[in-house]
TrEMBL record:
CDD domains: rTSbeta_L-fuconate_dehydratase
Cofactor(s), by name: Mg(2+)
Entry's EC annotation: 4.2.1.68
Domain Mandelate racemase/muconate lactonizing enzyme C-terminal intervals: 199-318
Species per Swiss-Prot/TrEMBL record: Dioszegia hungarica
SMART domains, per the entry: MR_MLE
GO molecular-function terms, A-Z: L-fuconate dehydratase activity; magnesium ion binding
Protein name, entry field: L-fuconate dehydratase
Amino acid sequence: MTGSKITGFSVHDIRFPTNVSGDGTDAMNKECDYSAAYIEIHTDGDLKGQGMTFTIGRGNDIVMYAIEAVANRIVGMEVETIFGDIGAFWTFLVGDPQHRWLGPEKGVIHLATAAVNNAVWDMFAKARGKPLWKLIVDFTPEEMVKAAAFRYITDALTPEEALKMLKEKEAGKKQREEEVKKIGYPAYTTSVGWLGYSDEKVRRLTKEALNQGFNHFKLKVGADVEDDLRRGRLIRSIIDDPANMPAGRKIDPATIQGKNAGPTGCVLMVDANQVWDVPQAIEYMKKLEPLKVWFIEEPTAPDDAVGHAAIRKALKPLNIGVATGEHAHNRMVFKQLLQLDAIDVTQIDSCRVSGINELLAIMLMSAKFGKPVCPHAGGVGLCEYVIHLSLIDYIAISGDMTRNVLEFVDHLHEHFKYPCSINPQGRYNVPLDPKEGYSIEMFEESMKEFAFPGGTYWVAAAAGNAPKPKHRGIED
Ligand SMILES: C[C@H](O)[C@@H](O)CC(=O)C(=O)O
Ligand SMILES: [Mg+2]
């Protein structure tokens, strides 16, 4: 695919009615219509870039406007100039002399920057005929450091240190790439335990997930402690029972090290989506101690690094870890979480921070501080994105996937031209199509149906006769 100059773009408001079936619900977010604020960048050739950021519905109204404002600045730019120094391009993108006041580097303007930057990286990968992860793992260590966003984090990690770390990993890259292509990348499922699901549905989905090969399961908690204990015990009763294990199932002990695994080696995690104050989080999690979870995710406000550190310290004697990051709005928040030893797991989000340049910096910091990166994927399009990030982390940065599990939610993949997929061992397959870029291109028919408010689904919904959505999870 070729093109020399960016000539324009279109922005699309795509919303899926996941709220109908309670998919995506948690103690904080009880009405989720998984939505993509989606951009397509056009060039004077056949090269195009698709990108998006994620919201849970009405947020699209606002972020769409911001995407337009950010993207206006790149019209007329030469693509090879951008690709020649993508680090400088990122600095330009976050450095608008007037938009910067809106963040800086956080909130709606940063979500919009993510959509645009994701689309540019998608275009870069397509121009080189590689899926995005491959484009980046083929970078030299110098190229990767040049692409990463180091501003404001050099007290935690300098470019020179990063270069040394990357060079140390160079020799094993080829072998790791071959290995992960063969066995896939470890995954966990959140699809069994959304807050809005009945016990019956949790039971059915947990059994299905076990048979799909998963051995890590995440449950939403924080609305009612008795409900949480009942639902958690229900999942544990299924995943801890050897009779429910698929034939021939063997769990590598290395992958459960340090985790609160049950007798079959299966692991449970819980996610509170920020509902608690710090002391409440500690008290509540003491009550959930019988569930023997590996970590509590987002126990409190996402910007509160000191609060996370206090929770982690208090829960350590119970062998409960702390994870966060899906709402950590930039690399500086991750820096503080890591410097304060406030987390056990780094949960980067492909659409919250400003795209690949910033994500590279966060993954490099996590590797330096010895924390596994387990990206967030609960949303539309996020699973498609994050497999690329985990592959970059494993092949080129950390060189380790023993403690890592990448989130998987089983919703809405059918709308993407290059959907992610899971192998029979419950692991992500490696995206291999040279035309897929960052894997986020949506089918035109899907966009026509779910464009808001004019798509066929939403027009029918406004008239009171919405067709029953067909997405997975809708059965009961
Ligand atoms: C609102 C989203 O579905 C959120 O609950 C996702 C999430 O926290 C996760 O996947 O983790
Ligand atoms: Mg979460």
